[in-house]
C-alpha cells in the first residue's frame, strides 16, 4: 500500500482550521488537524512545501518510521510549526491504520480504560456574579468540571472573558494583534474572591479550574496557589511561563494547589525536568501540537511514572479532528485526568462530521473505524481563510508582558 496523494485544506467556518488529508492507492484516506492558532499558514507552507512531496509513495502503515523520518530527517527539531505538521501526518496515518483494521482508534491503542471521558467547560463573565450565572448554566448542562475566569476590576480586557455577554470567547479576534493591558496586583487581589464565591454557591463537589495564562512570576504564583487552597481547585493552569522549569520548584514548595502545564509545549523534552521533579500534576499538550499520538503517548507514559495525569488542551482553535482523536486517546490512556472542551460552532461541526458525543459532562467515544471525524471538503470551500491574530499583553506602564 502507498500514499498516493496528500493535501492541506484551509477553512474558516467561524475560525481558521487547517486539515491534512492523506489518500492511499487503495482509496482509504485519513485526516489530521494541523491548526496552529494565529500561525496557520506557517504550518500549511511547511506541509505543502516540505512534507507532502516526501510522503508520496511511502507505505502509510509505517507510522513509526514516518514519524522519525519527519522528526530526525528535518534536522531542525521540535518547535510548534514542525511538531504540528508532524502531528497532522501522524493523526491521519493512525486514522488510516484504524480504518484498515476496521476498528475505532482506541482499540488499536489498547482498548478502553474507561467508559467515558470527563470534560471541563469554560465559564466566563465580566464580573463574579455573571461568572456564577455561567457556572450555573453549565452545571445544568451536566458539566462536572468548569474553568472559571472573571473580569478584574480596573482591567479593561482580560484573558478568557468574552467581549460581550452571551458571546463566545475567541482569542484570535482581530487581523493584527489587539493590545491588552495587565495588572498582576489587581488580578492577585481579586481572584481568591472569585473562588470563594464559587464554592459558597456550588459547594465542594464541582471541579473548578483556573487558567493564569503565563502571567505571573514564580513567587506570585506561589502566593496565588496558597490563597486559593481553601477552595481546592482541580488545577491552576500555566501560572508562569514555563521555559524556566526550575521556577516550579519554588511554586511547589509553597502550595498544594495542583498545577497544569504544557499547552504551548510540543515535545517530551519540554516536560522532562517538570516531570522528573514531580513539580506538576497535569500535562496539557494537545495531540495536534505534540507530534500526534506516536509522540504524546510517550509523554503520557513518562508522566505516568510520576503520578502525573493528562489534561489535554481543547479550545475551539483545535479542530474537531484533534478533539475526536483526543477522545480516543483519553478513553485509552491509563493516566487520564480530564479533557478540555470549548464547543465548536454549528458551522464548524457541519464541516467536520464526527461520532464523539457529549453526555452529562463527559465525552463518549464513537465506534466508527478510524478516529471518527471526517471533513466535508465542498462545505469547507465556502469558508475562506481570514487572517486572525492572538493579542499581545502589556503592563500598565506599556511594558510588553506574557500573554
Ligand atoms: O484553552 C486554554 O486553556 C487556552 O489557554 C486557550 C489558548 O489561549 C488558545 O488556545 C490560544 O490559541
Ligand atoms: Mg490555557
From TrEMBL:
Organism's domain of life?
Answer: Bacteria
Which residue ranges does UniProt annotate as crossing the membrane?
A: none
Enzyme class label: lyase
Q: InterPro entries of this UniProt entry?
A: D-mannonate_dehydratase-like, DgoD-like, Enolase-like_C_sf, Enolase-like_N, Enolase_C-like, Mandel_Rmase/mucon_lact_enz_CS, Mandelate_racemase_C, Mandelate_racemase_N_dom
Give the range the annotation lists for the signal sequence. none
- The Mandelate racemase/muconate lactonizing enzyme C-terminal domain sits at 128-258
Output the GO biological process annotations, alphabetical, semicolon-separated.
amino acid catabolic process; carbohydrate catabolic process
Q: Which Pfam families match?
A: MR_MLE_C, MR_MLE_N
**SUPFAM superfamilies under this entry?**
Enolase C-terminal domain-like, Enolase N-terminal domain-like
Q: Identify the EC number(s).
A: 4.2.1.39
Q: Which GO terms describe its molecular function?
A: gluconate dehydratase activity; magnesium ion binding; mannonate dehydratase activity
Which reaction(s) are listed as its catalytic activity?
A: D-gluconate = 2-dehydro-3-deoxy-D-gluconate + H2O
**Which Gene3D superfamilies does the UniProt entry name for this protein?**
Enolase-like C-terminal domain, Enolase-like, N-terminal domain
Q: Describe the function of this protein.
A: Has low dehydratase activity with D-mannonate and D-gluconate, suggesting that these are not physiological substrates and that it has no significant role in the in vivo degradation of these compounds. Has no detectable activity with a panel of 70 other acid sugars (in vitro).
Question: What NCBIfam families does the database record attribute to this sequence?
Answer: ManoateDhtManD, PRK15072.1
Put simply, this protein is called gluconate dehydratase
Which organism does this sequence originate in? Answer: Halomonas daqiaonensis
The taxonomic lineage of its organism, from the top, reads: Bacteria, Pseudomonadati, Pseudomonadota, Gammaproteobacteria, Oceanospirillales
